[in-house]
Amino acid sequence: MQFRSLFAGAGLALCLAASAQAQTVVDGSNVDEIVNLAKGYGSAALSAQSNGDPQIDGRIEGVPYHVYFMNCTENANCEDLNFYSGFLDVKPDMETINAWNRDKRFGKAYLDSDLDAVVEWDVNLEYGLTRENLDAAFALWALILGQYTTYIDAK
């Protein structure tokens, strides 16, 4: 009986290992895959930053945002994503911004140089994420963006 249990446990371990290996890992070299994930949340198109690094220009529920690929090597193999949305002519006071940053765990809020509202969030891709984890990151960004838009009364 112990022998059977040992084989059953070993079989389960092999199945779990095979399942983990079957997951697709996405890193900063998989720009098209990241754009495709973004399209699952609304419109999204690939463009380039002024330095040539990739960026995504998108909309979630009508709210524009950008994903900047950061710490890239020759405009590829980027280590980080910076999710960003700025709200032109929406000018909350510092008390409102500080309350967001105090009460919310994800999404850094601030006022840009023109005192317009901004929210951003960074995701590290240096060693890759499973496709499922990156999809969860986009889902969290969609939540942050929706909550922040409501919070600053930008809709």
Topology of helices and strands:
Elements: H1 2-22, E1 25-26, H2 31-39, E2 43-48, E3 54-60, E4 63-70, E5 80-87, H3 94-103, E6 108-111, E7 117-124, E8 129-130, H4 131-151
Antiparallel strand pairs: 1-8, 2-3, 3-4, 4-5, 5-7, 6-7
The tally of structural domains comes to 1
Show unreliable segments. Answer: 12-19
Strand fraction equals 25-35%
What is the CA-CA span between the terminal residues? 65 Å
Query: Biggest sheet, open or closed, and with what strands and sense?
Result: 6 strands, antiparallel
Alpha-beta classification:
alpha+beta
Strand order of the largest sheet: 2-3-4-5-7-6
Tally of DSSP helical segments: 4
Task: Report the C-alpha radius of gyration, rounded.
Answer: 20 Å
Percent of residues in helices comes to 25-40%
Task: Tell me what you see in this structure.
- Helix content is 39%, strand content 29%.
- Residues 12-19 have low confidence and may be disordered.
- It is built from four helices and eight strands.
- Strands 2-3-4-5-7-6 form a six-stranded antiparallel β-sheet. Strands 1-8 form a two-stranded antiparallel sheet.
- It starts with a helix and ends with a helix.
- The protein has a single domain, classed as 2-Layer Sandwich (Yope Regulator, Chain: A), CATH 3.30.1460.
- The chain has helices at 2-22, 31-39, 94-103, 131-151, and strands at residues 25-26, 43-48, 54-60, 63-70, 80-87, 108-111, 117-124, 129-130.
- It has 155 residues and is of the alpha+beta class.
